[in-house]
Amino acid sequence: MPKLLPATRDERRLQILNAARACVDEHGLEAVSMEMIIAASGLSVGTVYRYFAGKDDIISAAVLGGTTGLAEALAPVLGQDDPPPPGEYMGQVLRAIVSYGSRGPVDLTRVALHGWSHSRTDAGLRAAVESVQRAARSQFAAACRRWQAAGILGADADPEAVAELLLSVTLGFVAQRSLAGGASIEAHAAAVTALLRAPAR
């Protein structure tokens, strides 16, 4: 049997991961079985098991890949040297999340909660997810300090506390898309503007 090219191996691996995400989106994490994933992938049993040891292995890889990819997509927005005002900034963050989540055949924001839940049972995956979220919170805090220096955010605001709020807004937006069938970027951006408006001098 001829050896597969690396690009073909990557495509098949992604095919399996996307099949798992579709199954989780449709049935929920607990109801999904290895048989479901194999059937949805369109690949043979042997092929799927050449790539992954079982369901938990596939789900962990799907969550890690999604988390890493999202962090890469958010990096240019979160790390701006001269971030726009808070509402506009959060609008950019949320649009980047929606754009990344909708790139593939399954909306990753719809299955994110399942992934976060799964990460609590896998120590390595949990550490990776927490690391990404801590990094985002740190970048939010850096943006807050820049807003304070520019007089956009009140001088008495605690950048670390505001960063926690902005991370909660971000995660809550994803949760609303998953649980409530949608969430408005414009509404979130306007609310952040109202909450973080600097007091009149």
Task: Explain the overall architecture.
- There is one protein chain.
- This protein has 201 residues and is an all-alpha fold.
- The chain has a domain at 59-195: Tetracycline Repressor, domain 2 (Orthogonal Bundle), CATH 1.10.357.
- Helix content is 74%, strand content 0%.
- The chain has helices at residues 6-27, 34-41, 45-51, 55-78, 86-101, 108-119, 123-149, 159-179, 185-195.
- The longest helix is centred in the C-terminal third of the chain and has 27 residues, at 123-149.
- It is elongated and about 65 Å long.
Biggest sheet, open or closed, and with what strands and sense?
Answer: none
- Please name the CATH topology of the domain at 59-195: Tetracycline Repressor, domain 2
CATH class of the domain at 59-195: Mainly Alpha
The fraction of residues assigned to DSSP E strands is under 5%
Summary tags:
mainly alpha, 9 helices, elongated, Tetracycline Repressor, domain 2, 0% strand, 201 residues
Tell me briefly what this model is.
This protein is mainly alpha-helical. It has a domain at 59-195: Tetracycline Repressor, domain 2.
Topology:
Elements: H1 6-27, H2 34-41, H3 45-51, H4 55-78, H5 86-101, H6 108-119, H7 123-149, H8 159-179, H9 185-195
Helix pairs in contact: 1-2, 1-4, 4-5, 4-6, 4-7, 5-8, 5-9, 6-8, 7-8
